[in-house]
Design a protein that fits this description.
about 100 residues; alpha+beta
Length: about 100
C-alpha cells in the first residue's frame, strides 16, 4: 500500500491521471478522468471506461507520466509480463556457459 498519496473520497471522483494495471503482472497503462460537456468521463489506454473503475485503481501520476505511458508501442495490457521470459533465460544460460568455458 502506498501511503504517500493523498487520501481520496471514494464516492467523489475528480479529474486526474492514473497509472494502473489491468491484470496481475501486466504492464502499466495510463488512465484518466476528465470533463466532457460538463460531465465526468474516463479512458483507460485510450478507450472509454467507467470513471469508478479508474478512480478506485492505481496511483495518481502527472500529465507528463501519462503521456509517456500513452506513447507507442503500447504493450498488450491483457498479457502478463514475466521477468523470467525466454529471452532473459537464454541470456542467463549463455552467460553461464561463457563463464564455464573461460574458467581455468
Amino acid at each position: 500500500m502506498n501511503r504517500d498519496q493523498p487520501s481520496r473520497l471514494i464516492d467523489e471522483p475528480e479529474p486526474c491521471f492514473i497509472r494502473m494495471k489491468l491484470i496481475r503482472n501486466g504492464p502499466s497503462v495510463g488512465a484518466r478522468i476528465f470533463r466532457r460537456l460538463g460531465m465526468l468521463a474516463g479512458e483507460i489506454n485510450g478507450q472509454a471506461a467507467d470513471i469508478y473503475q479508474i478512480w478506485h485503481a492505481g496511483k495518481f501520476i502527472d500529465e507528463v507520466a501519462f503521456n509517456i505511458l500513452m506513447t507507442p508501442p503500447l504493450l498488450n495490457p491483457w498479457i502478463p509480463v514475466h521477468v523470467t521470459d525466454a529471452g532473459l533465460a537464454e541470456r542467463v544460460r549463455e552467460a553461464e556457459e561463457a563463464d564455464y568455458w573461460w574458467r581455468p
